[in-house]
Fold each of these.
Amino acid sequence: MTHTDDPVAARAARQLRRMRNFYAAGVALWAASSAWTTWDAPGSRPMWTSVVLLAVFGALLAMAWRWLRQLEPDDATRPSHRAAFSGGHGRHALSKP
């Protein structure tokens, strides 16, 4: 059974895509807010609050992206990361015949 056959995994992937978009919007909002408050009042409490919320939304975005990547099915036509760089001749360049 693949991830695309599992209805629970498909629902989870749809939800993660929606949350990823929400977190990306949060990152954009808090980045703008952090830049504005840093320009207006550097070192103030609102600036640090914006920076902390930017970090929180950035971490949530990274986690949603990572979980979504894990839910994607492995495509047989696309080479794996190792196969794409190894050239199929072994692990190191020196191991080529």
Amino acid sequence: MERIGFFFEATEWQGHPVNKEPEKCRALEWFTVHELPDDIIEYPAAGLNGYLRTTGTLAEHAW
């Protein structure tokens, strides 16, 4: 199955995050980008690592 993910940096927001899919996600937790959990899903990790490397606006994973 092909998949494409788009990631955005939020610089402003209002309200509090809410888990709208509790059957798919057991919890919402905050982590610093340098201390991510070991069980993070691979494609969001690739997006975050691409952001941290600041080598451009495109990060590829398993292509």
